Amino acid sequence: MTVVEETTQPLTEPTPPEGPDTPELPDQPRHIGGLSRSGVLSLCGAAASGLCVALLLFGRLAPLSGGLGFVVIAYLAFLAAYAVLVGLEEDGPAVRDRVMTVVLWSAASLLFAALVLVVGFTLYRGRDALTHLNFFTQDMQKAGPLDPLSNGGIAHAMLGTLIMIVIALAITVPLGLACAVYLNQVPGRFSRFVRTIVEAMTALPSIVAGLMVYATWILGLGLQKSGLAAAFAISVMMLPIVIRAADVVLRLVPGTLTEAAEALGAPRWRTVWHVVLPTARSGLATAVILGTARGIGETSPVLLTAGYTAALNTDPAHGPMVSLPLAVFSFVKSPEPAMIARGFGAAAVLMALVLVLFAIARVIGGRGPGQQNKRQARRTQRASRRDSERFAQPHDPELPPLGWEPAPGNGENA
After folding, report:
1. What is the pLDDT of residues 354-363, one digit of tens each?
2. Extents of the domains making up the chain
3. What dihedral do alpha carbons 287, 290, 295, 296 form, nearest 10°?
4. pTM for the full model?
5. DSSP string, 178-218
6. What are the ABC transmembrane type-1 domain coordinates in residue numbering (predicted)?
7. What CATH superfamily is the domain 147-370?
């Protein structure tokens, strides 16, 4: 009888023992972002489910109507269906994360669509006026409501807006930044009182600021309506925005920086000027941008304090002056198509002007903490080179310091 010996072969090769010479496998990063195939299918299926639920409710099951309600019901049904589909594969935290991601992307898309709609509609309605060169170089002194777009323009409103906003910025930026530094660096009861007043002034209606300047500047002092008075009213609206935003930014400056500067013997004003303000420069530029956006679009204070004129006026202290928002209001309320086109064209120019001002402010305050321009970098390199040369030279304690010369008549004869 023959006995067959069976040898057992291992299904897998044995793992070599780990030792100091064993090569380590590279770590494979885990991708937690992006969409997979199942994620895309879940989104598409949830969107189809939400649309079908809305169609059933508005067409068959419930007596509902209206476009806005249809969109809201479809979106809520989409979120519910998406949560259910994701829950089939993921756990609770992952479901909440996916749903909140969809909500945030939806909100961002809605805001972007609204922005595109506003800008596109303004450019579309004002395209006829924007194609004429005289629209940017002439005023409306010799043009009437029935004149074609080849006659008249908004040069007076553009110049008036620039003059008013420059004067308002010259008033607001020093006062606003100084007040923010005071609130941040000098705590106490009075600073809390000032912060409360600033927060209350943030919600101040613009017509109240215009009435205040009108009562004090025009009725009280007996002066005439002018661009300077309008700039005062605009600065009243801009000041609390700049103070509040700058105060929040200055609070974000690390306290260790100011403590280090004061530990080196720097006084408080030098610490603020050379440490706190340069560190928060980008945020302070954003605060100025927010204030400018609030002030450049004001209409009612300008109408009360600057009046209205169709002629170009370059003197902000004498005579009425018009701004772009006021010109838009005056043009659009006219029933003539040419005047309406001028109004939308002026609105497009106002948006472009705001974009240019924002770009300038971002360039000025765009460098982060510790970043220097070329001139500052060269000056720092020269100072470092001089210090390294001075440290490299030998120094004897019994000898006078480097660069010292005896006064005339007090030295010893050789």
Report:
1. 888 778 777 7
2. 39-125, 147-370
3. 120
4. 0.70
5. HHHHHHHHS-SHHHHHHHHHHHHHHT--HHHHHHHHIIIII
6. 158-361
7. MetI-like (1.10.3720.10)
